[in-house]
Design goal:
Elements (H helix, E strand, L loop, with lengths): L12 H8 L7 E2 L11 H8 L14 H11 L6 E4 L1 H13 L3 E6 L4 H8 L3 E6 L10 H6 L7 E5 L11 H13 L3 E5 L9 H4 L11 E6 L12 E4 L3 H10 L7 H10 L3 H23 L4 E3 L6 E6 L6 H9 L3 E2 L1 E2 L10 E5 L3 H11 L2
Parallel strand pairs: 1-11, 3-4, 3-5, 5-6, 6-7
Antiparallel strand pairs: 2-8, 7-8, 9-10, 10-13, 12-13
Helix pairs in contact: 2-10, 3-10, 4-5
The structure holds pyridoxal-5'-phosphate (PLP).
């Protein structure tokens, strides 16, 4: 039996190809958390007739792109900064703030800690508890905040737990942070997949608080991780100025500039994605809830964390079982606070989800 000593990021298809001899085109990635509908049909149609745009530099201010992001998010286009994926903006923001002490939830996306460490800071984890369904205990969390902390980084909904913090609780966090001079980064990479976006997203809070920056991307919801288009929303003009000062010019290429303007207006695709993910989210949660070998945690985003309760199973066994059928899930044993008793997978098309459920529940 081949054992995977390496752990795979959701996008490591090349590694899988090499180790397991499966062509990457044949792998169904349940680990990359990308919209199963693929790219926006409207964008596919219109972008091809705009290919000549690469023969000129993009607008250095990205005015049209920021306008379409402003419309899509119902926010002021002047509060929008575009970036080369959310990753560039996480990096720029942390570089500028260079926090000595940052708090992140545990478990969460690993990039935050990497950036804080690269900039000479220390990351403290506030553990989310399995017995609380990995939901944040807001009163306990805020009671731990004081002026020695420089930054809080919240992934909302959180990867890999798929739990989310309601906007009302976020307001409370921001109030306590304001008193203690703490800056809050909210990574909303997955927020468009939640059923009640207005109750979760912090975008509208950017008008009232100057200690928040919200990050969004197009990699997951708009299924375009190769485009590298992300954006930040903040009402803090000084911060915006500082980010723009440090960012390389033309960080977003002309194709991504135009693609963004088209995809944010593809309402049919946006609605189709929401209904598909919402239906599959409920269906897969119900399905796994009925099998006493598994404990699924109620997902708010387009992926689900599952605890393996069966003593004879672990994340490596299930990863192997799935990859042999060309289905790639995320073995969560490398996430701090999780173990080899946790896996994560995203919701794909119904027939693919059925295949995965049959494979894992064998
Ligand atoms: C929570 C979270 N934030 C950011 C990213 C990276 O996003 P982007 O492709 O927009 O740089 C990922 C990718 O997996 C993620 O899970």
């Amino acid at each position: 039996m081949i054992t995977h000593k390496d752990h795979f990021h959701g996008s490591d298809l090349e590694k899988i190809e090499k180790i397991y001899g499966i062509k990457k085109e044949d792998i169904i990635s349940f680990s990359a958390n990308v919209n199963p509908l693929g790219i926006s049909p409207l964008m596919r149609e219109r972008l091809t007739s705009n290919l000549d745009c690469i023969s000129t530099y993009p607008d250095r201010e990205y005015t049209a792109l920021r306008d379409s992001i402003g419309n899509y998010n119902n926010c002021d286009a002047n509060d929008v900064i575009v970036g080369n994926g959310t990753t560039e903006l996480i990096s720029l923001f942390i570089e500028i703030m260079h926090p000595k002490k940052a708090i992140v939830l545990g478990p969460t996306y690993s990039e935050y800690e990497r950036e804080v460490t690269l900039n000479g800071g220390t990351t403290l984890y506030y553990p989310l508890k399995a017995e609380n369904d990995f939901e944040l205990d807001i009163n306990h969390f805020t009671s731990k905040l004081d002026a020695s902390i420089d930054m809080i980084i919240l992934c909302n909904p959180n990867n890999p737990t798929s739990s989310s913090i309601p906007k009302s609780d976020m307001r409370h966090i921001l109030d306590v942070c304001k008193e203690n001079d703490i800056y809050v980064l909210v990574d909303e990479t997955y927020v468009e997949f939640v059923d009640n976006i207005n109750a979760i997203s912090s975008v509208s809070l950017c008008t009232y608080y100057n200690n928040i920056i919200v990050l969004r991307g197009t990699s997951k919801f708009f299924a375009s991780p190769g485009l590298r288009l992300g954006y930040a929303i903040t009402g803090n003009k000084d911060l915006k100025k500082e980010i723009l000062k440090r960012q390389d010019p033309w960080s977003i290429n002309s194709l991504a500039d135009i693609a963004g303007q088209i995809m944010f207006s593809d309402e049919k695709y946006i609605n189709d994605t929401r209904s598909l993910v919402s239906a599959e989210k409920n269906r897969m949660y119900e399905l796994f809830s009925k099998d006493d070998r598994f404990r699924p945690y109620k997902p708010s985003a387009n992926f689900m964390l599952i605890e393996i309760l069966d003593n004879d199973l672990d994340s490596e066994i299930l990863f192997e079982q799935a990859i042999r059928e060309n289905l790639m899930i995320r073995d969560c044993s490398t996430f701090p606070f999780l173990s080899n008793k946790f896996i994560r997978f995203c919701f794909m098309n119904p027939e693919d989800n059925d295949r995965l459920a049959q494979c894992l529940m064998r």
